[in-house]
Amino acid sequence: MMEAEYAGIAVEATTAGAAQAAPLTRFLRENPRVMACVLEYERE
């Protein structure tokens, strides 16, 4: 996955609160299949 894609989701998550963004981005980095599903959903 591209780092820019992670960064975009991190920015969106930060609007909900910085404390929530870090665990979310860590989870997505550790689970690339979940990240792929998120990106596929975003494209639709």
Overall 3D form? globular
Structural class: mainly alpha
How much of the sequence is in beta strands? under 5%
| String of helices and strands | HHH
Number of DSSP E strands:
0
End-to-end Cα distance, whole Å, is: 18 Å
Query: How many separate domains make up the residues?
Result: 1
- Radius of gyration over alpha carbons? 10 Å
Describe the structure.
The structure is a single chain. It contains three helices and no strands. The chain is an all-alpha fold. The protein has one domain (3-43). Helix 1 packs antiparallel against helix 2. The model has no long low-confidence stretch (mean pLDDT 72).
Defining traits:
44 residues, mainly alpha, 3 helices, 84% helix, globular
Summarize the structure in short.
The protein contains 3 helices and no strands. It has helices spanning 3-14, 18-30, 32-43.
Compile the SSE list and pairings.
Layout: H1 3-14, H2 18-30, H3 32-43
Helix pairs in contact: 1-2
